[in-house]
Amino acid sequence: MIIKYTLQRLLMLIPVSLSISVVIFLVVHLLPGDPIDNLMRVGSSPEDRLAMTVKYGLDRTLVEQYLLWIRSILSGDFGEAIVLRRPVSALIWQNLPYSLTLGALAFAFSSIVGMIAGTVSAVAKNPVVEQVVKAFILLGSTVPSFWLALLMILLFSVTLGWFPVSGAKTWTALVLPVLTIGFGGIALVARVTRVALVEIARQDFVTLLHAKGLSRSTILFRHLLPHAFLPVVTILALRIGWILGGAVTVEFVFGRPGLGSLLIRALGQRDYPVVQGCLLMLALAVMLGTLIGDVAQAALDPRVREATT
Amino acid sequence: MSTILKVEALRVAIGALTPLSSVSFSLEKGETLGLVGESGSGKSLTAMAIMGLLPLIGGRITGGSVVFDGSDLTALPEPAYRKLRGGRIGLITQNPMTSLDPLKKVGSQIDVVARLHLGLDKSAARNRTVELLGELRIPEPASIYHLYPHQLSGGMKQRIVIAMALAADPDLLIADEPTTALDVTVQAQIIRLLSDLIRDRGLSMVLITHDMSVVAQACDKVVVMYAGTAVEYGTVAAIFDDPRHPYTKALIGCIPRGLAGAQRLKGIEGTVPSVAHYPQGCRFHPRCPRAEAICAAVSPPFIASRDGAAACHFAGAVG
Fold it and tell me: So what's the ipTM on this one?
């Protein structure tokens, strides 16, 4: 049942991706400037420029260029990077693992710590604990990640010297970027978990669970948390795309390789095929995130399962 | 006959308020006692107090005693209380629509009681549950076992809730308005089912309701409650034949009789006062047709009558 539903949703990705590709293509080509500017040496003639333009097909109509791009996607190489002069697919494969590692760690870190913090603040009868977690949640949801990144570099790298300022040579270089991206996520997940738990604890069936003689911890772990998990899963799924988006600035600030760094550099050089390839990857990640969230929702909640499958 | 439950001068506080005071009654083995009154009279609070679940709603017992099978529950530590809940005292709640965990199969929600209190393993608990569902007149119990709550009707869900309460063979059932949320046709079935269970299994039951006709049908004894306190108690026969408290009389007057439309339905003027505004003296006096000056000043004592007693200054008077 769930498998059939997942396959249906995957098929739906094809038309959605196509329409997104049109938007990406148009936005990229509407940007002022073009990649040829970056290829010209001082003293090049207008003839050289024209030759370059023709070589990369930039003299053709937009429709032709779009169709050529789609053909290159279908053939698997995503076209040739104009400035970097390599297949875009090779550039993406080279950078993707860095982004995936960072994203996965930040995701796991913010989910786990966030759920624990949310649960503690909902269950603790201690007003101090509650206020501390609440303050942390407020801070985490309002501090922008690029600023937090600079602050972390200043404290942990420059002053204390615990972690490298930038790069990706050792695992320690991952710590600060993961903390930076994860921080906002913790706050979000903690808040959603907390609200859900407080809401569920008020429901009638919880009274009856107590009346059956179940212990508080059994009720929390077997009944309340699975319910709190439903909204959390939705939020987490939406965050998969958000984390990759957040990684764009954080990768740049920390000088890490990755899709984000590749995208920012390619944007500066107006390297159309690279920008398009990266944006398409990010869009795909967002769509897959939503899909995973919906499928997880159906797997966890029999009511949703019945309605969707 | 021996006493299974004896509640004496029970007093419950929530924060600075005292929504429940001077509630007393006793229940013998095999009997059904009805707790009757309008919404806000403290019936459900009494149930929560007996179950030891007041902390869930921020309440606590501040006076009196609840003696179950010889031991006082007000002093019982939580782990021992947990063995009692679901094990020896079963609770049936008001709204079956929200009383079950929507994410768990109904069968497993019943199993857990027998596993917890009787120490049964998974398959033994499951066989027991299927058997119990059959006993509760649920068709095809083996397939119902695997359904989720949202796939069942209200009446079915209430049977599941009853099965949860019965799963560990308790001695006492507390049924808090078990039929209020159900269709009229289903209400009668559930009441009959409960009455049969009490008789066949030798159970005792505290049946909370606002419906005097349910009391007449299912109970042996009655406690009438008003604004957080007991106003009259007695046998069903005594209460219906010779009600002494004006509130009891009014409640009985609310039962529709004869052909529908033949006569205007009666009600009781006014509403139950809220906890913060309980009146001085007799709490019913602002709505009482019989009230005199003394009612507003002095809280009435219980005056015994044949098979019962009523807290009214005029309970001894004829009429």
Answer: 0.89
Q: Is A211 in contact with B91 (Cβ distance < 8 A)?
A: yes
DSSP A196-262: HHHHHHTSHHHHHHHHTT--HHHIIIIIIHHHHHHHHHHHHHHHHHHHHHHHHHHHHHTT--SHHHH
**Amino acid code (one letter) for A50:** L
CA–CA distance from A130 to each of A58, A115, A201, B67, B171 (Å)? Answer: 59, 14, 17, 38, 41
Establish if A35 belongs to a structural domain: no
pLDDT digits (tens, 9 = 90+) for B86-98: 999 999 988 888 8
Query: What pLDDT band is residue B319 in, cutting at 50, 70 and 90?
Result: very low
CATH, residue A121: 1.10.3720.10
pTM value is: 0.82
| A309–chain B Cβ distance below 8 A for any pair | no
Using alpha carbons, select from B35, B75, B40 the residue that is nearest to residue B214: B35
**Which residues on A lie below 8 Å from B164 (Cβ)?**
208, 212
Quote the domain boundaries for residue A107: 101-256
Work out how many domains chain A is built from and give that number.
1
d(CA B37, CA B231): 10
